[in-house]
Amino acid sequence: MKLSDSSIKTLKPKDKPFKLFDGEGLFLLVKPNGSRYWRLSYRQSGKSKTLAIGVYPQVTLKEARVAKNAARKLIAQAIDPVAHRKAAVAAEQARAITLEIAAREWLALKQPEWVPEHYSKVVSRIERHLLPYLGKRLLGDIEAHEILTCLERVVAKGHVETAHRVRSLCGQIFRFGVVKRWVKSDPCRDLDGALPSYKRKANHFAAVETPESFGDLLRAIDGYTGTAPVIAALKLAPLLFIRPGELRRMEWAHVDLEAGQWRFIVSKVGRELIVPLASQAVSILRDLQMLTGSGRFAFPNLRTPNGSRCMSEGAILNALKALGYSGDEQTGHGFRAIARTMLDEQLGIRVDYIEAQLSHDVKDVNGRAYNRTTFLPERTQMMQAWADYCERLRDGADVVELGAVRR
Question: Which residue out of 73, 268, 286, 363 is catalytically annotated?
Fold first, then answer.
């Protein structure tokens, strides 16, 4: 027999859950605590399934039957009512998702994958060029021409490359929204050809080119007066020829002064690099350790008293400018080019030793990448020979080719 309002109102719970059926799969599940739940049993693709309809008395018998009939119509059309409900809930949630909410969630997902500098640049571009204009708009309501208006503002300021980067970021946010079922498509796809073309500039890092000019630079560095961390970083930059971002993020936990080694994960390639520390580098770091050794970073940001941040990105470049070297003459990254050239041409070091120390991809005869300890004894000898060479150049000596670590 079908259920009635009076029978439901007068029923009493039992020690165990039980069901009262109304017909066509609809039933009332009664729990020992007296709670009553409407459920619909059905079969879809040969499988038994259950749809939750609601709680009695908030959902009346009449309303439960209406919901049952609606669900059975979907089943007759080979539509799973549970999946249909989830899609409806997702669509309802999407109606509350703004571009800013989507962007923040996407950024939170990507942050662990990116180095801090790249993450900060991405956040800055989104916050400067998208969120002030479209941040409060619902993701599903934003159209391509609105995004183009934002990009044209960037182009008008002469930053065509930045406009292309912002468009790419916006597209990634929308595609993330597609995956999350907040939006059906990415309107940025309709912007192909809508922005002026640009030619990416060659990424050459300025550097002095001769041993004589390098000696002048080393003498200038030796006479630099500034904060202790910047002085130490500036002196280590030519000795270690590490990417500037890796140098300024050096952590004391990764440095073993007794063994004369610094180990860290190279962010660009995602693998560990061992940097042998010449005696000159160890001496600089020992002096620095007395000042910053209690903190995390060897080169802390002095504007952050708790030591949670490392030296700023422009510290070494600004120091070089203070010494009279513009960005067109010498950059922090340029020390890598100096070492690469002079180790080969002046000291006769094997190129594969140099490339391994530069953390470039070096492969064996079978095409396999060498591991982190590749040529470590030879690289240790090379780094000491290089530090000695730099010292002799700085002191103005006539430097002859060292026979160590020859081809």
Answer: 268
State yes or no: is 325 an active-site residue: no
Q: Is 268 a known active-site residue?
A: yes
Handedness of CA 328, 333, 335, 337 (dihedral sign): negative
Last residue of a domain, one of 69, 90, 111: 90
Which of 39, 219, 370, 392 is the catalytic position? 370
Other residues' Cβ atoms within 10 Å of the Cβ of residue 162: 17
> Quick check: bond before 57 cis, omega within 30?
yes
Residues 224, 262 within the same domain: yes
If the chain, 407 residues long, is cut into consecutive pieces of 10 residues, what is the mean pLDDT of each piece? 84 91 92 93 87 91 92 88 78 74 92 78 93 92 95 92 92 91 89 81 66 89 89 94 90 94 79 91 95 91 79 87 83 89 90 86 51 81 95 76 49
Range of the domain at 161: 99-191
Q: pTM for this one? A: 0.51
Q: Please confirm, yes or no, whether 336 is among the known catalytic residues.
A: yes
Whether 296 is a known active-site residue: answer no
- Report the domain count for the chain: 3
Is 286 considered catalytic here?
no
